[in-house]
Amino acid sequence: MGLLQNGQWVDQWYDTDSSGGEFKRQDSRFRSWVSADGSAGPTGSAGFKAEPGRYHLYVSLACPWAHRTLIFRQLKGLQDMIDVTVVKPLMLSNGWELSDDQYGLDYMYQLYLKADPNYEGRVTVPVLWDKQTKTIVSNESADIIRMLNSAFNGLTGNDSDYYPEHLQAKIDPINERVYELINNGVYRAGFATSQEAYEEAYYKLFDALDWVEGILSQQRYLAGSTLTEADWRLFTTLIRFDAVYHGHFKANRQRIADYPAISNYLRELYQLPGIAQTVDFTHIKQHYYGSHDSINPTGIVPLGPEQYFTAPHNRSQFN
Ligand SMILES: N[C@@H](CCC(=O)N[C@@H](CS)C(=O)NCC(=O)O)C(=O)O
């Protein structure tokens, strides 16, 4: 794992020394938007109009942030409009590796340099790539799912809305809390390099999961009776939890399977049309257990746990 500095790839693990052993995630740098008419979004530059076949997603099936974008591509019926390259499961000294049909690239960092030869920083997935101007529109999953939620509606006729205006004031604070304490919280536990930083992340993570369990014991989804982006953003962390975060990231007060409401909710989401095919436990387990040398030096990938996401759930009690 590494980053780009002065146009060169440098192999380097996260710097946690300067933050007392705490893992800090870098902000995404490409922040433009695809919109229905090509006008600018809330950030970045304009000119990215929703058009069939123009955009390409680079994802890792292991990565929870990239997983969000694959889910929205399914939910919004964009499979024929946006094609996908899946990177290899392991992220080692050259960062993400791929077999790229478009430009014959071997490494993800080459795509970043193609977009911006002066790009400095981490090379992350997902990436939404514009084949027309040969640049990265966005490498921020939270923005990409919002684009997919609405920008292509005129082309697909699919106007299902996972960020409806009347629920935004509810969704935003939930997202913030879930991001900080759960989505990124598992990484803060797993990538901590001091006992103190780990313990702080651990306690906050399980407090937040207890809070989620409380909500989901009263209502079907995080924002009420409507399934929204807040649920999908949580889903990609929950589905990985028992297989990797519980063991590999030491988030082991309890499993998701031990939370009655959350585990039923997780099964409901998993069983919705198109979702199960976005979940790949081979990539997920290989990536985490095989890429983080300092956490799991042998690289041995555990065989368990046995999981039953297709078992019945009880969530219809709420509607
Ligand atoms: N804020 C970004 C985060 C993406 C991210 O951190 N992806 C990880 C994989 S799960 C990555 O590519 N990491 C490479 C690195 O940090 O060098 C988003 O949500 O899109």
From TrEMBL:
Active site: 63, 187
One term of GO molecular function: glutathione transferase activity
CDD domains tied to this protein: GST_C_Omega_like (cd03190)
UniProt keyword terms in alphabetical order: Transferase
Marked site positions, Lowers pKa of active site Cys: 245, 288
UniProt binding sites for glutathione: 96, 122-125, 140-141
Family matches, as InterPro entries: Glutathione-S-Trfase_C-like (IPR010987), Glutathione-S-Trfase_C_sf (IPR036282), Glutathione_S-Trfase (IPR040079), Glutathione_S-Trfase_N (IPR004045), GST_Omega-like_C (IPR047047), GST_Omega/GSH (IPR016639), Thioredoxin-like_sf (IPR036249)
GO CC, one annotated term: cytoplasm
SUPFAM superfamilies assigned to the protein according to its UniProt record, in alphabetical order: GST C-terminal domain-like (SSF47616), Thioredoxin-like (SSF52833)
Record domain GST C-terminal: where: 164-291
PANTHER family linked to this entry: GLUTATHIONE S-TRANSFERASE OMEGA-LIKE 1-RELATED, GLUTATHIONYL-HYDROQUINONE REDUCTASE
Name used for this protein in its record: Glutathione S-transferase family protein
Lineage, top ranks: Bacteria, Pseudomonadati, Pseudomonadota, Gammaproteobacteria, Cellvibrionales
